[in-house]
Amino acid sequence: MAEHIRVLLSEEEVDRRIQEIGEQISRDYAGKKVHLVCVLKGGSFFMCELAKRITVPVSLDFMSVSSYGSDTKSSGVVKIVKDLDESLKDKDVIVVEDIVDSGRTLSYLLEMLRDRGPASLRLCTLLDKPDRRVIDVNVDYTGFQIPDEFVVGYGLDYDQMYRNLPYIGVVEFDN
Ligand code: IMP
Ligand code: MG
Question: For the whole prediction, is pTM greater than 0.85?
Answer without folding.
Answer: yes
